[in-house]
Design goal:
This protein is α/β, with parallel strands linked by helices. It has helices spanning 21-29, 39-42, 65-68, 73-89, 93-97, 112-125, 135-139, 143-152, 167-180, 197-205, 245-251, 276-290, 310-322, 332-335, 342-356, 410-414, and strands spanning 6-15, 18-19, 36-37, 51-52, 101-106, 158-159, 186-193, 236-244, 257-266, 299-301, 327-329, 358-359, 376-377, 382-383, 388-395, 399-407.
Length: 416
Amino acid sequence: MSLSRVVITGLGAVSPYGVGVETLYAAMAQGRSAVTEHPELKAIKGLRCHIAGLVPDLDAKEIPRKHRRTMSRMSVFAVLAAMEALESARIDEALRRSEQTGVIIGTTVGSPQTLQDFFAEYLRDFSIEQVKSSLFFKIMGHTCAANVAQALGIGGRVMAPSAACATGAQAIGLGYEAIALGRQRIMLCGGAEELHPLTVAIFDIINAASTGYNSDPGSSPRPFEARRDGTVCSEGGGVLVLESLDSALDRGAPILAEIIGFASNSDTTNISTPDPGRIEQCMRLALADAGLDPGQVDYVNAHATATELGDPAECLAIARLFGDAVPVSGFKGHLGHTLAASGALELIAVVRMLQDGLCLPTLNLDQPDPECAMVRHVQAPEPRVMDIAVKNNFALGGVNASLIVRKFSQDAATHY
């Protein structure tokens, strides 16, 4: 069976730096942290982590009210990111509304803030008299995908994977497969997340949240670092437009990069502790899907959550597969952990890196932990020609996902 080549033709981001891909990338290239003190967290009894990456005030009124009223904060992020991605991909309304264009955008859970608001009212007198008809559309599992489709008139598939921190990478991988198989011509792929104290509390309760840098927020998280003490939760939304190469060439669309491999596997050794062997196998499967050997990879963008167990496991897996020569960095030191959005937002930064020939470092990595020292860490920006990159994301629950992305050149299209 002949498979279609799949390229990236549009990018859109809402991040703790603000709205826009260039806002995201410029801040990261400058080495700025988006993590700040969050007073709401400090007021919660028993919660030890008081820092987070929050999206600054934005203008949600860009979205018409008739669509906005069914959106929580996470859906607003997803829609604004999708609008930017569609505009950069130059997709006209007719193509957007046709059944050739689909959307696959996930989140970890439906809006937790909306659920909190509902139960605060409901538990007061066990009444639903004040509940609005828009409630369900904010808490359903496919809230981001459905609201993007409704607001932008997407006529094809609407899908919504939910695999916590691997959600965004899975969405991109599943979109890639749908296009490669010829089921869709174009897919808007990504993830979104809104910050809620419950999310931070979950990481705190399992001793995976950063608690020692509340007075110095920009110094945490510290992926791979000897003084790391856990992750920092953030929010945002990232969307990429994936498209068949034939379609992109026919439209004269800007081609930013090519997705050439994807894999996702399960780690059943433990529901919360990653196994290096399963991570290594996931990357091997993605490379096999791309038809590549490990020696052909120029860069690895790590999941790198700055947790005690996660970072050494990922480093060991990378070292077993790639040795100690391939540059490795992760972006949660810049952004914090945007959970379901992390795969998309971080891949967007990788695409921009490939375009610019600039390898961004792991922020806050001053002294690598000896348990993470077996790979070649990037600790300062490095001008570097990179053609092929691996993007990793892993999730609590034992879900691994790896993507392989290649820099696109006009020569590649000419020889197609």
